[in-house]
Amino acid sequence: MQRTLSVSNKTRGMLPRIPFVRIKDTVLGKRFELSLALLTPSEMRRVTLERKGKDKASNVLSFRLSNTSGEVLLCPATARTEASKFGMTYSTFLGYLFIHGLFHIKGLPHGGTMEREERRIMKRFGLRAHE
C-alpha cells in the first residue's frame, strides 16, 4: 500500500496527537498524496513572503500541486500564540488549521460553506472548538 501522507517536522517540538491521515483521507480521499510540513516561524515567514507577498509567519498555507497531490504547511509556534484568540486549545487549533488547509486544497474559498464543512470534520474527529 502506498503512503498518502508524508510529514516533515522542521520544528523541535512534539506534535499533539491529531489523526492527520484519517482527516486527510476524509476530506481529500485515500488516494490523494499530501505532504505536511511543520515549519519554524522564520521558515514560514520566508514562504509567506515568497508566495503571498506578506512579511509575516502565516499559521497555515496550502497548495494544490496537481489533481492528486498537495501540500499543507503549518507553523506550530504561530498556532500556539493564536489559539486563544480563536477560543481553542493549541492542539485543537492546530487540527483546525490542518482541516482549513485541506479545504482550500479541495477548492473551497472562505465563507459559510467552508466553515460548516470545517465544523463537521472537527466534530467527527473530536476537535472541540471551544475548550
Helix content: 40-55%
> Structural class from helices and strands?
alpha/beta
- Give the overall form: globular
Q: Low-confidence runs (pLDDT<50, min 5 residues)? A: none
CATH topology: Collagenase (Catalytic Domain)
- The end-to-end span amounts to 37 Å
Task: Outline the secondary-structure elements.
Elements: E1 5-9, H1 20-28, E2 33-38, H2 41-52, E3 60-66, E4 69-74, H3 76-82, H4 90-106, H5 112-124
Description:
The protein has helices spanning 20-28, 41-52, 76-82, 90-106, 112-124; strands at 5-9, 33-38, 60-66, 69-74. It is of the alpha/beta class. The model has no long low-confidence stretch (mean pLDDT 92).
What descriptive keywords fit this protein?
131 residues, alpha/beta, Collagenase (Catalytic Domain), 5 helices, globular
In summary, what is this structure?
With 131 residues, this protein is of the alpha/beta class. It has 5 helices and 4 strands, in the order βαβαββααα.
